[in-house]
Amino acid sequence: MLFHPMDILVFIAFGISIWAQFRVKGNFAKYSDVIASSHLTGAEVARRILDQNGLYDVPVEPVHGQLTDHYDPIHRVVRLSEPVYYGNSIAAVSVAAHECGHAIQHKERYGALVLRHKMFPVVNLTSGIAPILLIAGFLLQSLNLLGLGIIFFSAAVAFQLITLPVEFNASSRAKAILVSDGFIRNEEEHGVNKVLNAAALTYVAAALISLFELLKFVMIFFQSQEE
Q1: 99 is catalytic
Q2: I need a surface site. Which of 4, 99, 170, 175 has the fewest CB within 10 A?
Q3: Catalytic residue among 44, 99, 167, 213, which?
Q4: Residue 86 included in any domain
Q5: Which residues of the chain have a pLDDT value below 70?
């Protein structure tokens, strides 16, 4: 079947993903021009947040690119893109605080993050094999291969769904810390929300795309059994 009704939902989710990417870049660019009242750089904010939470041994490092910010749980390093590391804008401090939120989650063994870390090796394997099994299942008209592909793909979808609370929680922590510790003023919260909420939307869109794809494969599988 070349077209399936679920494809409509996949296309909608894909459209949301594209829109979310534009929002992330647009909001980041907009609030990169708005200097935070504290005048601290992203690196300085990150260092202070980590130290205040007892994470003195977690370094903050600059990394090339834009929106390449991340927390490395294996090496326990907060890596900030150069515009965030050196910038003192609302966008810079927002992203820096968000990545520190992940470091704090790691320290506190936040449930969803722990589960995500445990799933990663399995998902890293199954996400590469799943497409091969699904394609082989369709080409060979093998329900066994298709079913196995669906199981493997399910692991990748579960991983993306578990990522959502991890990201939302990190953003929630970031917003609270930025205000309570005086890195921003109350009137600057709007900008922080715009930057972090747009970023969170990209994860939601990616999860929706994968979920709808999975539902499509499941429906095809059961329809094929009836034929």
Answers
A1: yes
A2: 4
A3: 99
A4: yes
A5: 1-4, 226-227
CB contact at 8 A, 124 and 80 = no
Position 165 scores a pLDDT of 97
In this prediction the pTM is: 0.89
Alpha-helix residue ranges (DSSP H) falling in the chain? 6-32, 42-52, 82-86, 90-108, 111-139, 143-180, 189-226
- Greatest alpha-carbon pair distance for the chain in Å reads 66
Residue 227 lies in a domain: no
- Under a CB-based contact definition with an 8 Å cutoff, are residues 46 and 100 in contact? yes
Residue range(s) defining the domain that contains residue 78: 6-221
For residue 50 the two structure tokens come to 């980590």
Among 26, 17, 33, 46, which Cα is nearest to 183's? 46
Q: What pLDDT sits at residue 1?
A: 47
Distance CA 143, CA 211 (A): 20
